[in-house]
Amino acid sequence: MFSLFYVLAGGNGKNVRRINMSSNGSSSLEVTLSFLLGTATGFILGVLFAPSSGEETRKKIKEEAEKTRIKAKEGYEKITHETEKGFKVAKEKTYEGIDALKDFVEKKKEELSKEGPASSEKKEAEKT
Fold first, then answer.
1. Could you tell me the sign of the dihedral formed by the alpha carbons of 96, 99, 101, 103, in that order?
2. In the chain, how many domains are there?
């Protein structure tokens, strides 16, 4: 589990708060970033320790940098798409909740109007 520590603004460094970035494993962003970092690190170490001329090494670095750029772009697009889907679902659920609340209020209004004011006053009197 990945946690982030930070000092609250305006504090003297004694107020430290722990934030859990995820509770049940890694998010897709963390996985993507970890993968890209591991790929880049492995490539750089491999190129630096492989016996090649400077020209070949530069060519390999350029090719791998391009591959990593493409993978990063694909990862970003995937995360963006998933985020948009999440926002869409949240928006739909919010509207469904609002509609359900409106229906509930309307039903209660109808019930109260059918009972009439005398019935409401009688209930109030029974409570006291």
1. negative
2. 1
